[in-house]
Amino acid sequence: MSDATALDYGFFSFASKDEVLEKSKEYWNPGKTSFWSESGVPLVIDRREEYFIYDVSGKRLIDVHLNGGTYNLGHRNREMVQAITVAMQHFDMGNHHFPSLARTALAEALIASAPQNLTKVIYGSGGGEAIDIAIKTARHATQKRKILSIIKAYHGHTGLAVGTGDDRFSKLFLSDNEEDFPHVPFNDLEAMEEVLKGRDIAAVIMETIPATYGFPLPNPGYLEAVKQLCEKYDALYIADEVQTGLMRTGELWGITKHGIEPDILVTGKGISGGMYPIAAVLVSERCAGWLTEDGFGHISTFGGAELGCIAALKALEICNRAETRSMVHYISDFIGRGLREIQATYPDWFIGIRQNGVVMGLEFADPQGAKFVMKRLYENGVWAIFSTLDPRVLQYKPGILVKPELAEELLDRTEVGIAKARADVMSERKFR
Amino acid sequence: MVDTMFEMPLDPAGVPRGRAMIERAEWAARAFASYDSATVQRIVDAAAQAGAARAKEFAEWAVRETGYGVAEHKLLKNLACSTGIAAKYRASDYIDVVVDDAGKMVEIPRPAGVVLALTPSTNPVATVMFKITLALLTRNAIVISPHPYAKAVCAEAARTMAAAAVAAGAPDGCIQVVEEPSIPLINALMTDPRTDVILATGGTPMVRAAYRSGNPAIGVGPGNVPVLVDATADINATAQRIVDSKSFDNSILCTNESVLIVEEAASAALLNAMTRAGAHVLSDDERDRVRDLVFPDGHFDPKWVGKDATAIASAANVRVNARTKILVAPFDLVVPEEPLAHEKLCPVLGLVRVPTVGRGIDAAQAVLRITGQGHSAAIHSSNPQTIMAFSAAVRVLRVSVNVGNSLGASGIETNLAPTMTIGTGFLGRSSVGENLEPKHLINWTRIAYNSNASVPMANFAGLTPWHAPEGVVPTYPRASNDANAAPLVPSTVAMSNDAPDELRDEIRRLIIEELNAIVRG
């Protein structure tokens, strides 16, 4: 680098962070760019390693957003980098039409890892596409069109997936379609049965814990009952394990903690190792019919790219190690206890902890509470994001390989951030 | 900003998994470090009993897998290193806070954390059991990297003890074992900054690598044991002890006698008595054939490690009695170019006759100039002046007196700390000069008051920072709104805490039988 203050990356360079932000608004996304600056999170990520991301200013943040588990294994995980680097000496994305080495190997590994009833794998390039595949598959298998999901659900932004979600993202693009995508309240079995009774529902799609809704936990027995209702009314059960899979709940797939064998299971985000985009849909034999009937039914140039498959194989292997599982249990136990202690200090402000493994939602006593906490945590070196569909709740998602000392540091910083956000809200209320 | 283009070196196979084990151990060690002594004692007993219950099977398995040693001797060591060590040391000594009101000090024991244990092929299972038991007694997490020649039996022994320990309440992952040891993996584990201490028992290159790792290490040097017999010794008893000790586990231990140095006046009687006890004293021709066989080109041929004396004799075309347990090879001068003066990992005992005790001490020193400084020597004598002169002159840190050195130096037939790891101290380029014992795996935090009498010391009686775990450690991650639900997927394989009664009785019987056999000599 010739100029120490310039942001020169060889591939491109900027004179300053301000220039990046200006051009980001000009050429990329003015809405998002402004939003973060105004929210007190003026982040432009530079270096990234382990569970740390660094702003271009040099500020270090502990990442407990992890892009919904994409960075489960940390940023630029050493094993992931090595696997892809080696793979690139031989593989590229591959040709999506032909049988392939890496796609076959990953499919076999995924099936071995999953509930026994799942037998085949279909690839997408991201979670949204994978959800679309799951919906198309359910429609084909049942010859029914409707997909039932919960109010405030979120399953992605692609053509079909967006319909299952909150209209926050569909109306904007005139893509809301309550007729084909009915919604019922979460944790409300009666409402669900009422809709399923019509027997015109192809599938119920459920995140095992709804992430963007702030990780409200399913009532004990709720998911199990939903599965039973699906069986009763001949609807399929699609488990969206994009955020709850890959050991985040302390088992490889969160749905297995409920003893449920879903008809379709969707994985994305973390399966990429944070290094090469890929997503996958695991389907039962009943659902797999179209793969025989018309194997060209869904085509995706990037879906199941071979480099992505190798990334996914490595990510799956790391997630599924006995050591990793054990560590997730330790991390979940340790951070859970630490958070409960913090909660005991500020019970009027930090009013709830939703936790299953390292999937955590922290509830605060203000409709926008998590935005205050997010800002103060950012100042104190922690990056955690509020829940878009319930901003009282902060998504707090530690990695599955966090070390004890980092867990301690994270809790120290979290305590301070929560205390400061409480003071912010209290003083604001005084002036309201 | 992109600093420089760099190439990340590729990790050899197995290394990432090994690092994951160390990380898991770090979590386990943190949890373990606050356990109370009652819980720890329960864990130690459960793990030791589980190991002892399979001691015989593991002894036979070790002989089968490595191809050397004597199963019945390995059984004895396996028992000594599991239930024996557990009985010898109480967890409370390494956990409970010590209050010294007179000295105005309070001492809090602090475990090392993550112990990396390298174990040898010669004492494979016993060393695994020994190090695990020491780690548990001191609330350390341990990762075992066994010698590749004995990896299967060692892994099974470690898993057996781990399952019992966890079932008794130990933190998950506090005992782990490398299934596929390799040099790059061992190097990665030794140099990992999360490794708190390395216990290196094995060959010199491995021990030196442990010291070079940058991490605290307790390594041991090699042995080459001289044994001096003077004219004042009880000849018959001495002969029996030497034959038994030299033949113990077919002489694959670093504590087996290497060179017998006998005062000329006692020589004939001793050799006669040793012959009656199962030794075959080689003629000069026979000696040459055995030397050429075992040390072709002057270097020890590893295929003879731990083989029976009769097998070696037969291969060397030496006719011996079928009950022969050791071969005695006479030579004149202890010098480096004499192969028989070097460590021999088989039941061949060098023999040097000396005119005086003084010359005998010189010969013993010559043996140790070749190798084995800081390790051990033995003497059979009733003259305290001789014993003193020998012990002061010979550069070792333990001298077994009127006892076989195999079980003498390792504390099984002496009151030294019973051990599978002989610290060779500064003489042997090691950080520990004692037999390895639990105290070497802890440090103490000392609360030190103002010594001035005007400053009072508070009353610490009954205070403890430790507590029993509330349940399984770590707690299984149940959903926070469903805290009472039983996990559908069990976090560990359930296993009974206690060995069944009949098994315990069988173990007890075996121990008593073995100990009696030793006492009978």
Key words describing this protein structure:
heterodimer, A: 432 residues, alpha/beta, Aspartate Aminotransferase, domain 2, 2 domains, 7-stranded mixed sheet, 4-stranded mixed sheet, globular, B: alpha/beta, Aldehyde Dehydrogenase, Chain A, domain 1, Aldehyde Dehydrogenase, Chain A, domain 2, 7-stranded parallel sheet, 5-stranded parallel sheet, 17 helices
Task: Please provide a written account of the structure.
Chain A has 432 residues and is of the alpha/beta class. Chain A folds into 2 domains: 24-76 and 322-431, Alpha-Beta Complex (Aspartate Aminotransferase, domain 1); 79-319, Aspartate Aminotransferase, domain 2 (3-Layer(aba) Sandwich). Helix content of chain A is 40%, strand content 18%. Chain A is built from 15 helices and 17 strands. Chain A has helices at residues 17-28, 30-38, 66-69, 78-87, 101-113, 127-142, 161-164, 167-170, 189-196, 222-232, 289-293, 306-319, 322-345, 369-379, 404-431; strands spanning 7-8, 13-14, 45-49, 52-55, 60-63, 118-124, 146-150, 183-184, 201-207, 236-240, 264-267, 279-284, 350-356, 359-364, 382-383, 385-387, 390-396. Chain A has a 7-stranded mixed beta sheet, with helices on both faces. In chain A, a hairpin with a 2-residue loop joins β13 and β14 (359-364). In chain A, α1 crosses α2, α5 runs parallel beside α12 (306-319) and α9 packs parallel to α10 (222-232). Chain A is globular and about 60 Å long. The mean pLDDT of chain A is 96. With 521 residues, chain B is α/β, with parallel strands linked by helices. Chain B folds into 2 domains: 15-220 and 437-441, Aldehyde Dehydrogenase, Chain A, domain 1, CATH 3.40.605.10; 225-409, Aldehyde Dehydrogenase, Chain A, domain 2, CATH 3.40.309.10. Chain B is built from 17 helices and 15 strands. Chain B has helices spanning 15-32, 37-53, 55-66, 71-88, 92-95, 124-137, 151-167, 183-191, 204-212, 235-247, 264-276, 284-294, 309-315, 357-370, 384-393, 405-409, 501-520, and strands at residues 98-100, 105-111, 114-119, 141-146, 175-177, 197-200, 217-219, 225-229, 257-263, 279-281, 326-330, 348-354, 374-380, 396-401, 442-448. In chain B, the strands form 3 sheets. Chain B has a 7-stranded parallel beta sheet with strand order 10-11-12-9-8-13-14, sandwiched between helices. Chain B has a 5-stranded parallel beta sheet with strand order 5-4-3-6-7, with helices on both faces. A 3-stranded antiparallel beta sheet of chain B has the order 1-2-15, with no helix packed on it. In chain B, α7 links the parallel β4 and β5 (175-177). In chain B, α2 runs antiparallel to α6 and α2 (37-53) packs across α7 (151-167). The longest helix of chain B has 20 residues, at 501-520. Chain B is globular and about 85 Å long. Mean pLDDT of chain B is 91; it is low at 1-5 and 486-500. The chains are: A alpha/beta (432), B alpha/beta (521).
